[in-house]
Amino acid sequence: MLTLYRSCVGHGEHLADLAKASLPTDVAWIDLLKPEPDEVAFVKRTTGLDVPDIGDLSEIESSSRLRNQNGAIYLSAPLIYRAEEDQPITTPVGFVLTRERLITVRFHELSFFQTFTDRDLAAESDPLSSTAVFAG
């Protein structure tokens, strides 16, 4: 699922036809949850940035976890969460940070993403920025 967060809107948006859609210029955060190929293609086409897949994000080498490529910072991290069995497990999460926007790539629902959007974005009075979302 692809969700866009604009700099002055406190809630996410979904686009209907990704093949024809363009990326609004004021999007500060693109969140990809279990991304489909058409969603990845849309992000690549509209931002010019590579979108890491689960294999890229699962690399265990520390040199693969943080890199700078064409003005974007790529970071991957295993994050701990609790699945249905209430046992802690890890899932890879990717971050692509530029001055204009943040792209997050994740493959499981993570409660802290929902908490951030519900609490912090709803209360945000300043325009949203890529770095503010990343810090949040």
Write the layout of secondary structure elements.
Blueprint: E1 2-6, E2 27-33, H1 37-47, H2 54-57, E3 66-69, E4 72-82, E5 88-97, E6 102-106, H3 111-123, H4 130-135
Parallel strand pairs: 2-6
Antiparallel strand pairs: 1-2, 3-4, 4-5, 5-6
Named CATH topology: Beta Polymerase, domain 2
CATH superfamily: CorA soluble domain-like
Beta content: 25-35%
Structural classification:
alpha+beta
- Give the fraction of residues assigned to helices: 25-40%
Number of helices: 4
CATH hierarchy class name = Alpha Beta
Describe the protein in words.
25% of the residues lie in helices and 31% in strands. With 136 residues, it is α+β, with helices and mostly antiparallel strands. It has a single domain (2-135), classed as CorA soluble domain-like (Beta Polymerase, domain 2, 2-Layer Sandwich). The chain starts with a strand and ends with a helix.
Q: Summed up, what is this model?
A:
It is built from four helices and six strands.
List key phrases describing it.
136 residues, alpha+beta, Beta Polymerase, domain 2
